Sequence to fold (249 residues):
Amino acid sequence: MSASEMNSVQASDTEQQVLLSLKSISKTYTTGDVEVPVLHHVDLDIYAREFLVIVGPSGSGKSTLLNIVGGIDLPTEGDVYFHEKNVSEFNEQQLTRYRREHIGFVFQFYNLVPTLTARENVIVAADISADPMSPDDALELVGLSSRANHFPAQLSGGEQQRVAIARALVKQPELLLCDEPTGALDLTTGRKILGVLANLNRELGKTVVIITHNSAIGQMAQRVVRIGSGTIAEAKPNPHPIAAEQVTW
Fold:
């Protein structure tokens, strides 16, 4: 897709506020004398309060793209603007603050501390946040109040993922970045997790970005971006998003 086509897609809804903008992002990893290009001149706007799904096969560059959006990694070329501030020029201290104050991460594997309860896992994130919500409120928002005092080993996979979402949410981030959040779950549990994310977008106005290999999840997005071989092949709005419980794969 050409830059002009991308711009026309991104500007299709002029009433939406751009929260984050990627400008000609490229990423190359170097191992010894070997260079491995992963992203090639990617342009993408992420709008405030949108539910965006980025779909691509393994090796397409989607996780690298998410890491750059989240300030975990920096581009080799190009710029990342968040509220018009150039994140790609941030130093390590500024990147840490950016991640801590503005970004919530949800990954395929839950990465919970096994010796802490669900509430305590959420408290860990709250304690390093500038303006956290109550950990109990975060657990309530994901429907897990009754399991707050249980340890990860006492929780199902879906419940552990909801704890991980509460841990990301307690920081009150503007942007929730979800890397294959249903990848380790069965269909029924995956639908529940997608429903939680959709509710956070709808009820709290959180911007939610999901990256996945599963194109079926795009059916519930407000906009779907397809990535392949490190470039954006397609980006278009979804005029008729379906509910999470209707998604099937």
